[in-house]
Write a structure and sequence with these properties.
With 283 residues, the chain is α/β, with parallel strands linked by helices. It folds into 2 domains: 167 residues, HUPs (Rossmann fold, 3-Layer(aba) Sandwich); 93 residues, Pantoate-beta-alanine ligase, C-terminal domain (Pantoate--beta-alanine Ligase, Chain: A,domain 2, 2-Layer Sandwich). The protein contains 10 helices and 8 strands. The strands form 2 sheets. The chain has a 5-stranded parallel β-sheet, with helices on both faces. The protein has a 3-stranded antiparallel β-sheet with strand order 6-7-8, covered by helices on one side. Strand 4, helix 7 and strand 5 form a beta-alpha-beta unit. It starts with a helix and ends in a 5-residue tail after the last strand. The structure holds adenosine monophosphate. Adenosine monophosphate binds next to helix 2 and strand 4.
């Protein structure tokens, strides 16, 4: 395991000197099958996979769960042995943010709506740490989950506008058997909250059926259906339900082309997100 940027750079140079492509999977640890699926996909692209495990303080708001966020490094390392034992970079906070650190990468446009409205400093923190990880690791290709759809949009925009030479690959959402999108935060849920949480994925499936089978194109009608399904869970508090253009994240009033449905809701103190890409060609 590598813990310093200096050692990471040395490792990266060695890989590139032996003509290897570095495939990076950035994570905050507390790994689950969603993260492992990213590693498995990365294994298909390169023999040299690097998983970063770093709970990034600057992407958490002041009242968010940075201190409570689950940390389970030993178990994470064990899980990674089941998917080819990639190299691991697990720095501490002081290694990533030395005293006086005072730079922030701000992406406009796609970082503004939805998560950006509710968590105004979140994507600056994400873009900053991802760029630092790209630079320190010399990654050639990096793997992200569609689970954090807006994050992917932000990272892609940063890579494009700053000409960062890293290819971005997006991997599908891995779900529990009942449909709940896997998340490190799911372990916060009580039994009753866990049983209510499935309304999120169920509401997305209902919406997909409305759009693709029943040919309903009015976004507000679809949003209302999603809302009423989520509201069947008494403890679920909706942050937003959005139907947007998957490239620009501009909200749609009529669903005439590809669309992304994005949801965020809180149950107790746990915030859950989910999304569904609608790609059926519309007539
Ligand atoms: P995190 O540790 O939550 O920052 O996530 C690290 C990476 O794993 C991000 O690219 C996430 O989008 C991805 N990820 C998290 N949950 C899932 C999931 N259920 N399916 C696929 N990818 C996921």
């Amino acid at each position: 395991m590598i813990t310093t940027i200096k050692d990471l750079r040395r490792w990266s140079r060695q890989q590139h000197d032996s003509q290897k492509q570095i495939a990076l999977v950035p994570t905050m640890g507390a790994l689950h099958d969603g993260h492992l699926s990213l590693v498995k996909t990365a294994n298909q692209y390169s023999d040299t996979v690097l998983v970063s495990i770093f709970v990034n303080p600057i992407q958490f708001g002041v009242n968010e769960d940075f201190h409570q966020y689950p940390r389970s490094l030993e178990n994470d390392l064990r899980l990674l042995q089941t998917v080819g034992s990639p190299e691991v970079f697990a720095p501490d906070v002081a290694e990533m943010y030395s005293a006086g650190f005072d730079v922030s990468v701000h992406v406009g446009g796609v970082s503004q709506p939805f998560e950006g409205k509710i968590r105004p400093t979140h994507f600056d923190g994400v873009a900053t740490v991802v760029l630092k990880l790209f630079l320190a690791s010399g990654a050639d290709i990096a793997f992200f989950g569609q689970k954090d759809f807006q994050q992917v949009c932000v990272v892609r925009k940063m890579v494009t506008d700053l000409n960062v030479p890293v290819e971005i690959v997006v991997c599908p959402i891995i779900r529990e058997p009942d449909g709940l999108a896997m998340s490190s935060r799911n372990r916060y849920l009580s039994k009753t909250q866990r049983s209510q949480a499935i309304v999120l994925s169920q509401s997305l499936m209902l919406a997909e059926k409305m759009i693709t089978c029943d040919n309903i194109r009015d976004a507000e009608t679809v949003r209302e259906k999603i809302r009423s399904k989520i509201e069947t869970a008494p403890d679920m508090k909706i942050d937003y339900i959005a139907i947007a253009d998957p490239k620009t994240l501009h909200e749609l009033t009529t669903i005439n082309s590809d669309a992304i449905i994005l949801l965020a809701a809180k149950i107790g103190t746990t915030r859950l997100i989910d999304n569904l890409l609608i790609t059926t060609t519309m007539s």
